[in-house]
Design brief:
This protein is of the alpha/beta class. It has a domain of about 300 residues: TIM Barrel. It is about 40% helix and about 15% strand.
């Protein structure tokens, strides 16, 4: 038995890459200094994998920002607007990721989307008609040589040509057929250079083939790989898939000249069934993804070994692997010195998953049921404490259809709210959070470490709320927010106020670029014990005559951005959270908060990758879960929701069925593509497509925002159009935020004056 992983976390055990990269952005360190940090992170990752006994250590899974962007740059897929900046290669790369604004130069970043069904965001590479595809980067070769100098042989990984061709954004008249031959030639040159270096295994990551494939997709995949594999020479090529099964192309994979095929046994519902039905080619090695790469619970050695035994009896040569890259889990549970051992022993982060791989390898070819390692694992899984709450279970069991529907229709609410709020055309607002400045973070840290009292901590936040309300009134926004200065994270904050949750101190996971999140862990049954946000929202509302939004995170997002339980269904867990947030909504309403925003930023994130499963496995309970939260509200209470960085067009009817009053979307990086879907589906809900990108430091001009609004008006009813940024402003600086919001308000006023009085 040998072991492998697909990829390893790359942000640094203590987020070293994040901090170094941000210093580089601020010109506080040179690229050479940034590069030294990167080398240390890579060295640590390779060393850890080697020391753990891993057989297939991986290289080129490191990135300064994003691996999909890396693959595009490797093959010279760099739009003209970035090339014309005439920057150093690394700064051109960062301009693609973040945008570039200096003097009279103002270039937007590439768009950003969710990486399949994860909370990781990838940069959507763009290809133009005059793009010359060719080998353009030595990054993968350099990292392979770097590892070898340390005495570590690695397999090198890269996004495969099929996934690259399918996910790239074609900006001209040309499409896949026009570029595929040049891309294949570039990949062949890539393989050739690795052959010269003596690489033994090259891993092509092809997650796109777990999606629905038609005959053209399958033909394209086969055409591309027949040519590439005929030129592999001495290199062993591993086709690596993840996030699902490959039911549409399984038989074809057996016929192609891959040396190894990596299959996901965790999310791949039909993986075992496919092997049972069609077998597995004798000339290939199966990399069996049986260690969950996306969740943090300890592996059941019994279940894993039973699968391996079954594969072995079929004569299949197996390598035990992770189901996906370990990018999606934190580095190590050992850093959590404040978490009780009774909890810690149940979790496996990246380092611990390496240990699990080694332990299973050690006992795989033995009478493992008598092995101490196996017995210890079985005992651990059989013993969990304090995770059940009968009152929660009874409440979920008593749910009936009435809880999913508001008493008043959308049309009735629209009429009542128009009179209640009397908002102007093109009303302006923000998505919720305001910049989390150094003093805000310092105040939170000092409270957590006991340097200041709870009263001092809260007094500081109340003062920040007061300043935030005054600032918004000065800027001229119509619907205000309190700024969320008391919140560390939109999910962790709520988890801290719900029973059934556990929290970590250093369990950071990369979300995109330098942005990291610390997902809480759903340990047991969830309920709300006391009001969470009412104090902050009512104080903010007392400072102004304008409506202030109560800000909540929705149940689906709280679930999707946590590490979920594996002992109950995702639906049941989400309904538990929905009932807890419902209690908060009703308390806010009772306290006089007339506008309540319930963010569902991650609604689409867990949408099954195959359309046939969308409703039966997800939307049929995810949309009702959201409706549970707000169904008890009066007609005069305006319910907002927000969604970010996803492709919504194909589920726009389901989103409309959430029955919110106003929905804001990310839109700026996707060039407002969502507008066509809204129009085609006669979207009834009032909408606020984001007019500028908050994930970039650039400040949009009034003209730019006005232009975006005019595009929106061509597709949407202007009477239902809200004006807002793409997302919360937490990560932005104060100066750029104020400038951007002033421009946003000025653009809204320009359109308001123009359309006032029109029918």
């Amino acid at each position: 038995m040998k072991t492998s992983i697909i990829g390893f976390p790359r942000i640094g055990e203590n987020r070293e890459l994040k901090f170094a990269t941000e210093k580089y952005f601020k010109n506080k360190i040179s690229f050479e200094e940034l590069e030294e940090t990167a080398k240390e992170i890579r060295k640590s990752a390779w060393t850890k994998q080697k020391e753990s006994g891993l057989d297939y250590i991986v290289s080129n899974d490191f990135s300064y920002y994003d691996l999909f962007l890396d693959a595009a740059v490797t093959f010279n897929i760099i739009p003209k607007r970035y090339r014309e900046l005439n920057l150093d290669p690394i700064d051109t790369y960062f301009a693609m990721a973040r945008g570039y604004q200096k003097d009279d130069l103002d270039v937007k970043a590439l768009s950003m989307k969710k990486w399949f069904n994860t909370n990781y965001h990838y940069m959507v590479a763009e290809i133009e008609d005059d793009t010359e595809i060719k080998l353009n980067s030595t990054k993968a070769f350099d990292e392979y040589k770097e590892a070898r100098k340390l005495g570590i042989e690695t397999k090198s990984t890269i996004v495969g040509p099929f996934t690259l061709l399918k996910l790239i954004d074609y900006k001209g008249d040309k499409g896949i057929d026009d570029f595929k031959n040049d891309l294949v030639a570039a990949y062949i040159e890539y393989i050739s250079k690795f052959n010269d270096l003596g690489l033994k295994v090259l891993q092509f990551e092809e997650p796109y083939i777990v999606k629905d494939l038609d005959s053209d997709d399958i033909a394209l995949f086969k055409e591309v790989y027949r040519e590439i594999l005929s030129n592999k020479k001495d290199i062993k090529v591993l086709l690596q898939t993840y996030f699902g099964d490959v039911r549409d192309i399984y038989e074809d994979l057996q016929d192609l000249d891959f040396d190894g095929i990596g299959l996901d046994f965790i999310e791949g519902r039909k993986t075992l069934e496919l092997i049972e039905k069609y077998g597995f080619a004798e000339d290939k090695v199966l990399f069996a993804g049986l260690i969950n790469g996306k969740n943090i619970w300890r592996n059941s050695y019994k279940k894993t070994l039973e699968v391996l035994d079954g594969l072995k009896t079929k004569g299949i040569n197996c390598v035990l692997s992770t189901s996906s890259s370990l990018l999606h889990v934190p580095y190590t549970i050992t850093n959590e010195d404040e978490l009780d051992e009774k909890y810690k022993k149940h979790f496996a982060f990246a380092y611990e998953k390496l240990e699990e791989l080694e332990e299973i390898k050690t006992i795989a070819d033995t009478d493992y049921e008598n092995e101490e390692i196996f017995k210890r694992n079985q005992d651990l899984l059989a013993n969990r404490e304090d995770y059940l709450d009968e009152s929660v279970r009874e409440r979920v069991a008593s749910i009936d259809d009435s809880i999913f529907t508001r008493i008043d229709s959308f049309e009735k609410r629209e009429e009542v709210q128009a009179e209640e709020f009397d908002l102007p055309l093109f009303p302006t607002t923000t998505i919720g959070s305001f910049p989390q400045t150094a003093n805000v973070k310092r105040n939170r840290k000092r409270f957590k470490t006991g340097e200041i009292t709870k009263e001092e901590y809260e007094d500081f936040n109340l003062q920040k709320i007061k300043e935030c309300i005054a600032l918004q009134e000065e800027i001229g926004l119509d619907v205000l927010v309190h700024g969320e200065f008391e919140r560390n994270d939109m999910v962790e904050y709520f988890g801290e106020h719900l029973s059934g949750y556990l929290f970590t101190k250093k369990a950071w996971v990369q979300s995109y670029g330098t942005r990291c999140v610390k997902p809480p862990i759903i340990w047991g049954d969830v309920k709300r014990n006391e009001p969470i946000t009412v104090k902050w929202s009512t104080y903010a509302q007392s400072l102004t005559g304008k409506p202030v939004k109560g800000m909540l995170t929705g149940p689906v997002t709280i679930l999707n951005w946590s590490f979920p339980r594996e002992d109950i269904s995702i639906q049941e867990s989400t309904y538990q959270i929905a009932l807890a947030i419902r209690d908060e909504v009703l308390d806010l309403e009772a306290a006089g908060i007339r506008v309540i925003q319930i963010d569902e930023a991650a609604l689409r994130e867990k949408l099954p990758l195959r359309k046939t499963d969308w409703y039966s496995e997800y939307l049929d309970w995810a949309i009702p879960a959201f409706r549970i939260v707000h169904s008890g509200c009066k007609a005069s209470t305006q319910i907002h929701t927000h969604m970010c960085y996803s492709e919504f067009g194909d589920i726009i009817k389901a989103i409309d069925n959430m029955d919110a009053d106003i929905i804001s979307f990310e839109a700026s990086r996707s060039n407002l593509k969502i507008l066509d879907f809204l129009k085609e589906n006669n979207f009834k809900t009032h909408v606020g497509p984001g007019v500028y990108d908050i994930h970039s430091p650039r400040v949009p001009s009034v003209e730019e925002i006005t232009t975006s609004l005019r595009k929106m008006i061509q597709k949407l009813d202007y009477k239902k159009l809200w004006v807002n940024p793409d997302c919360g402003l937490k990560t932005r600086g104060e100066e750029e935020t104020v400038k951007a919001l002033k421009n946003l308000v000025e653009a809204s006023l320009e359109l308001r004056n123009e359309y006032q009085g029109k029918n």
